Amino acid sequence: MSPQEPDSRLAGLVRRYGHGSRVPGWDTAADLGKDPAVVPDPATVEVPDELRAGIEEFMARYPDRRSAAIPALMLAQRSHGWCSPLAIEQAAAVMRLTPGYLSAVATFYDMFETEPKGEHTVYVCTNISCSLRGADALYQAMLDAAGDDPRFNVRSFECLGACDIAPMASVNGEYVGPLDEADCGRIVDDLIAGRPVLEGKRLRDRPSAIDLPMGDGLPTTGRDMATGPTASGNDVSGPKDM
Length: 242
Ligand code: FES
What we know:
Glutaredoxin, binds FE2/S2 (inorganic) cluster, 242 residues, 4-stranded mixed sheet, single chain, alpha+beta, 33% helix, globular
């Protein structure tokens, strides 16, 4: 079996790239014929005031300004809609780094978009916990629901760190789950209408131990957590739709 043919029952269902990953583009070759990059001249690069102030504020938090590369890129992406060459050049000018340094960061992390994208980002997690709960069909349903509408940027994603609500997705940064295929059309409708997405299925809507009032009757064991209402009436059993 070649590395291009992972031994998986899902191999025919989920697109994989040559290296076996579901993440497109990471193996795009660097252009070694380019001239070495230089730090942009701050006097010749115009940077929006808000972007400059935000990047400088992050730089001030770290002893080494390069530690602010990720938040600086997030701000640049927010300002331009994606990590365009101009966005990276502006961030590099403020940070006194080469654009290449920031490009290396932007192309490494999945949540930086290095191509123009639709305004609404939907990341459908297709990693193991979500796959076991139907994420591959969910991803296809989400692609179908968005169709070829350029406003939507639908991507599969590796574990988004919310396996407890699998299968799940991040919609413009809002975590929602557990999802079923019928939710995909509602996600599209909510986004187009400008409504909060999938109210009731957002991670933020779920009860959290941190939010529980202190007092008698609070659960002290996992068994308590699983058995629901406590003597004091606090319902700690979680949502009923799981
Ligand atoms: S596997 Fe989907 S959130 Fe972890």
